[in-house]
Amino acid sequence: MGVEVDTKEFKLKPMKCEFNFLSKSDGSAILSQGETVTLVSVNGPLDIKMQSQSIEKSTLEVLFCTKGGKPSVADRYKESIIKQTCETAILGSLYPRSGITVTIQELEDYGGLLSCALNCTCLALLNSGLAMRFVFAAVSCAVDELGNIVLEPTQEQATSARALLNFVFESRNKNLLTGFSEGSYSESAYEEALERCRAASDLVFTFYRDIISKYSNVI
Amino acid sequence: MKASVGDVVLPGDYCEEISAVGEKAKVIIGPGLQKEIDHVYVTKAGILKKRNPNTYWVDNYQKRYIPARGENVIGVVVQKAGDIFRVDVGSSITAALSYLSFEGATKKNKPDVQIGDVVYAKMLVASKDMEPELVCVDSHGKKGRMGVLSDGFVFKCSLNLIRKILNPNCPLLESLKNEWPFELAAGMNGRIWIKANTMRETIALGNAILGAEYLSDEEIKSMCTNIATILAGHVS
Amino acid sequence: MAEIYKLIHPVKYFNDYISRNVRPDGRQFHEHRNIKLNVNSIKASEASGVVKCGNTTVICGIKLELATPKAEEPDSGFLVTNVELLPLCSSKFRPGPPSDYAQVVSNIVTDIVMNSECINLKDLCIVYDKLAWVLYCDIVCIDNDGGLIDACVMALISSLKTLTLPNVTYDPETEDIKVDITKRSPLKVNGLPVATSFAIFPFFEKSILLTDPSAYEEDMCGGNGANLIVCWNKGFLCGTQKFGGSTLSMEDEKQALKIAKQRTKLVEKLIETCIDNESK
């Protein structure tokens, strides 16, 4: 098993990104990972209601809009994941008594929606010029019936899998920032998945750097 | 990841070069950099730049203005409150502009500023914990070029574009001013005020500035001549 | 004096405790609070459980109803879990529709129970495509002092363990339903999922894991509720959630899994003893 892991190449779905997709927001990005597409707009720091202001850090508001448009309890959960991830990444203490709004619009969902949304959020934050502690990369993987680990599963692989694991890593020490899972799995599968995703997160960080250098060179 | 001057950097990268220089001499770390315990970390995505001696910053793309002391900005008066005007400069909260901070203004002799007027002013106080404060006079009490901007046309752009056109090496304004006469004020908050003789010229000027955002110096020059020929009516 | 210090320098106050390897309430970093469990205390519901982890108090009641199964899954019943966070349990909550946090907690608890596959929904079906049980599991938090998910899962599982379903006879011709409440059969519960919460406190370059955090510790570590929730069931993981707070290194991760495993054994024993005592 160990040999197999070493020789296997880490391949993620092809990623495409465009900055400033929306002209009126402070930062926006559209990202496609394979067939899954999300659009994120970031606004801030903004003036917000007195009662929601915090004197220590900026108040973060995350809105997740599904394609269907009807809000559900599962969307609140997704918002909570994205919000808490961003809260750690953004240096909110530089913008006290102000608000930052992040709006995520799902455009196409062919598996891995939430990790695509997280990566897109990170790109939109980079575009908005808000100060951040680090960048983050989300990688998803599936554990199939035999206990094998499939990085970035397709929708068919995801539905037949025993478990789906999602990890978000930060860029400084590649430590785990956020993680969430579906299904049940063994401890060894979990640890292997974590290491595989940690290694694969490098590809996402390289992608971020490529995009930024592409845009920085023309300015 | 380790970064050095001239690299494309992402938040979370650290620069050992700055820490090393900092041990011997005084270093100024500008926007996009932050000191944390013993490392200097990047907080914004862009290109790490250096100016001698020992000033470092990250040149990043940004649209939203964060007030900074000493910058000249263009704002719109939105409210008169007691003895201050509230000015919208595009930051999270409005900036305060005392009516005594105009040239020659006294308690009796109030300046003639109405709601909706565009003012060109300097940031006097800009702290994250305080309301930003503007002034329309310099330290000698002279207005210089600051004050109410009458007529003309204001438009918004990214903060990078302002820095680009105000750069002495940028050929844009050099080329344009040879083509037709105009007045221009650029605020560091991403707002530009322009005034030309005709509507046609104003629009041409605005388009030339906005079009220069992603162009190189050579391309800017050819674009300016291009616009001038169209404006002169040689090409329809 | 300490109270004033806490008010003026909240972060420094907390740091001072951590640097002396102790938590503000006197516990060690990996010590969890005492757990008290009582089952079948609400006689009006079919099954119930009250859990107290330190100050955190959660009560769960299960109500039974009969319904027609969904057309897409004609052989499954329903398990509906809902967590209510009333203004009673903490000053953070306001009266009115469920807050975002209550919805998130509900979602996590439902996910844990579903992912652990401890209840087979097919067991809840009585007649294919005609009749199935609906288990309404209402969990109400009475006092929220951190580690809410742990308490909710524990209350829910211990209630499910004691639940007995009455016998139902269905006449396909007359569509007549007869419920015999005197004859009851227990619900099959496969395994015993147990959640363990951690808060992760950034302490200089390291991060410190705090097992079973109190509400105050959760607040100090940032984020909404606990930062890391590890859920074990029969030696398998059935949910690892990490949100906000400080980042988690590999060693801390392994340690958290180990602590959670130990605590799971303890909680399993507790639930089993409690149910045994009750049935005697």
UniProtKB/TrEMBL annotation, chain A:
This protein's record includes keyword Kinase: no
GO cellular component terms, A-Z: cytoplasmic exosome (RNase complex); nuclear exosome (RNase complex); nucleolus
Pfam families per UniProt: RNase_PH
UniProt entry keywords in alphabetical sequence: Exosome, Nucleus, rRNA processing
GO MF annotation: an example: RNA binding
Subcellular compartments: Nucleus
SUPFAM superfamilies named in the record: Ribonuclease PH domain 2-like, Ribosomal protein S5 domain 2-like
Family: Belongs to the RNase PH family.
Protein name, as recorded: Exoribonuclease phosphorolytic domain-containing protein
Organism: Parnassius mnemosyne (clouded apollo)
Lineage start: Eukaryota, Metazoa, Ecdysozoa, Arthropoda, Hexapoda
UniProtKB/TrEMBL annotation, chain B:
The organism's taxonomic lineage, starting at the top: Eukaryota, Metazoa, Ecdysozoa, Arthropoda, Hexapoda
Superkingdom of the organism of origin: Eukaryota
Domain K Homology: 152-198
GO molecular function terms attached to this record: RNA binding
Coiled coil: none
Protein source organism: Parnassius mnemosyne
Protein name, per record: Exosome complex component RRP40
Subcellular location: Cytoplasm; Nucleus, Nucleolus
InterPro entries for the chain: Exosome_RNA_bind1/RRP40/RRP4, KH_dom_type_1, KH_dom_type_1_sf, NA-bd_OB-fold, RRP40_KH-I, Rrp40_N_euk, Rrp40_S1
Family (UniProt): Belongs to the RRP40 family.
Matches recorded under Pfam families: KH_6, Rrp40_N, RRP40_S1
GO BP annotation list: CUT catabolic process; exonucleolytic trimming to generate mature 3'-end of 5.8S rRNA from tricistronic rRNA transcript (SSU-rRNA, 5.8S rRNA, LSU-rRNA); nuclear polyadenylation-dependent rRNA catabolic process; poly(A)-dependent snoRNA 3'-end processing; regulation of gene expression; TRAMP-dependent tRNA surveillance pathway; U4 snRNA 3'-end processing
UniProtKB/TrEMBL annotation, chain C:
The organism's place on the tree of life at top rank: Eukaryota
Entry keyword set: Cytoplasm, Exosome, Nucleus, RNA-binding, rRNA processing
Compartments where located: Cytoplasm; Nucleus, Nucleolus
Biological process according to GO: exonucleolytic trimming to generate mature 3'-end of 5.8S rRNA from tricistronic rRNA transcript (SSU-rRNA, 5.8S rRNA, LSU-rRNA); nuclear mRNA surveillance; nuclear polyadenylation-dependent rRNA catabolic process; rRNA catabolic process; TRAMP-dependent tRNA surveillance pathway; U1 snRNA 3'-end processing; U4 snRNA 3'-end processing; U5 snRNA 3'-end processing
Sequence ranges assigned to domain Exoribonuclease phosphorolytic in this UniProt record: 31-166
SUPFAM superfamilies per record: Ribonuclease PH domain 2-like, Ribosomal protein S5 domain 2-like
Location, primary (coarse class): cytoplasm
MF terms in GO: mRNA 3'-UTR AU-rich region binding
Annotated GO CC locations: cytoplasmic exosome (RNase complex); nuclear exosome (RNase complex); nucleolus
Pfam families: RNase_PH
Record flagged with keyword Nucleotidyltransferase: no
InterPro entries membership: ExoRNase_PH_dom1, ExoRNase_PH_dom2_sf, Exosome_comp_Rrp42_subfam, PNPase/RNase_PH_dom_sf, Ribosomal_Su5_D2-typ_SF, Rrp43
The UniProt record lists the keyword Oxidoreductase: no
Assigned protein family: Belongs to the RNase PH family.
Protein's name according to its UniProt entry: Ribosomal RNA-processing protein 43
Lineage, uppermost ranks: Eukaryota, Metazoa, Ecdysozoa, Arthropoda, Hexapoda
